Amino acid sequence: MSRLAWYWHRVGAMDAAEILARLKKKLCESTDARRGRDWTSISIPPGRRYPSLPDPKRAPDDVRSALQRDAGDILAGRWRAFGHLPIRVSDPPDWHKDHLAGVDLTTNRPAFDLDHRSLPRGADVKLIWELSRWYQLTRLAMAAFILDDANAAWKCIHWLEHWVQHNPPYRGWNWTSALEAGMRLIQFTWIDALLQRFVSRGECEAELEQLRYEILPSHAWFTWRHKSFGSSANNHSLGELAGLILATVRWPELAPWSAPLDELQSIWEREILAQFAHDGGNREQALHYHLFSFELCSQALAALRAAGRRAATEVTERLEKAADFFVVVHGCREPWDYGDSDDAVVVPVCAADSNPATESAKWMRGATNVISYWMGESPSRTVSPAKCIIRDSISAGEAARAPSTVQSSSWRVFDQSGIVMLEHGEMTLRWDVSALGYLTTAAHGHLDALHVAVWLGDTAMIVDPGTGAYYANSGLRTWLASRRAHNGPCVE
Asked: Residue 103 is inside which H or E element, if any?
């Protein structure tokens, strides 16, 4: 009954157009589950244009040392899920295993018949998806590129071949989300470029060519055909579009399997304006999702520029404000973030995956670091502070016409995003008074209602733990809302 109630409320969040679109998607799922396709029907020559890689001889020492460390750990099976969770992974990896719960859910069933929201024996699909985002494989390709490590290059190729063999198109858990397919398109675009150093020497050329045919058309078709829309068009949509843009820029021949680059760019620009408010804040009200979405946009924007394209001025200005928002709200302080705690990255270009947000904030601020080595300058510039106005004197009508970022005394109010910052001497205070959630489903806006955090210098002194879970663990939510879970002053 609870599941029926969930579906009833979910349908209530959709308009008629979205309901019709979802019925059409169900028809597509039924067709794709039963119809095979010839993925070699078009020619896919070696990629070009994006990414434009730096000179490996000029790699900073911290890039080299980080890659040596990471490649050693990855080859030894010492992986970290989500950048911080240690797991032991076999060679080759078990692509359908939750390595935290120790549950292997290997299946050859059509992905459209699987419910990834309800896995047996305590397994979580995000632990399965994490391995198949290929972060570790990209790090091996980076080690091959920078350190001229042939062992890392061949291991990356062999694991990709193993993934293809054990994840046929549209079967199993790794084909249950278009976002996951889009993320793999991003990683493979980078992997293909990073391994060209070996191709130029006559190594692994045939293997990479075969992988292009086995990975690219099926992923492009699936990502485009089953893309997110309507009340589900949050950062998933940006990830799917970024994957398609990167792959299509590198291999224009992929357009027949998805959409022309003109169409992809047009939808991508609309999504940026929809998902980032005028003051730069991400409308999902989660600081991790803000960074994840900005990274996706940075990758897509760099790819479009490599193809000789320009984004609309309104789009680039919105991304500049998004960078300014993150620098102000997150900064380089000890992280204590509001909103959903999903801390995914797009491409592992940081020196250490344990704290990519701080490295990213420095990069957005114009610092030269490991990210700038791989990505160049941030696609943003410091946005000039809005004109100072007295917030209390603004009427409702005037507020609608006022600058979206308001400064009053030492307060900074991101008016549309509902985030308030105060810097006073050594103290920094952040207060979340935003609306609850994004779109009609209120996605991701439920974890930290009225979140407050206070720093002294760079150290988090008063923290708000949020609620920690969706609805499955009501005991955890209750405890995290209690007095004992907070370290602030207590009137008792």
From this structure: strand 103-104
Kind plus residue range of the DSSP H or E element containing 3:
helix 2-12
pLDDT value at residue 470? 61
- Compute φ and ψ for 97, nearest 5 degrees: -110, 135
Q: What are phi and psi of 388, to 5 degrees?
A: -70, 130
pLDDT at 388 over 70: no
The whole-angstrom separation of Cα 161 and Cα 168 is: 11
φ/ψ bin of 8: left (φ > 0), alpha (ψ from -120 to 50), beta (otherwise): alpha
At 12, which amino acid appears? G
Length of the chain: 492
Q: Quickly list DSSP for 196-244.
A: HHHHTTTSSHHHHHHHHHHHHHHHHHHHHHT---GGG-SHHHHHHHHHH
In Å, how far are 8, 161, 163, 188, 248 from 214, measured between CA atoms? 39, 9, 10, 12, 16
Instruction: Map tokens 């890689």 to a residue.
Output: 53
CB neighbours of 58 closer than 8 A, spacing ≥ 6?
none
pLDDT tens track for 179-234: 999 999 999 999 999 999 999 888 999 999 999 999 999 999 999 999 987 766 78
The neighbour count for residue 25, using CB atoms within 10 Å, is: 15
- Would you call 455 exposed, middle or buried from its count of C-beta atoms within 10 A (0-12, 13-18, 19+)? buried
Calculate mean pLDDT across residues 291-314: 96
Band (pLDDT 50/70/90 cuts) for residue 47 is confident
Phi, psi of 429, deg, nearest 5: -125, 140
H or E element, residue 397: helix 396-401
68, two tokens: 């040596």
- What's the CA gap between 465 and 480, in Å, rounded? 6
Write the single-letter amino acid at 117: R
| Longest Cα–Cα distance in the chain | 73
Q: Whole-model pTM?
A: 0.89
Burial tier of 360 (Cβ tally within 10 Å: 0-12, 13-18, 19+): buried
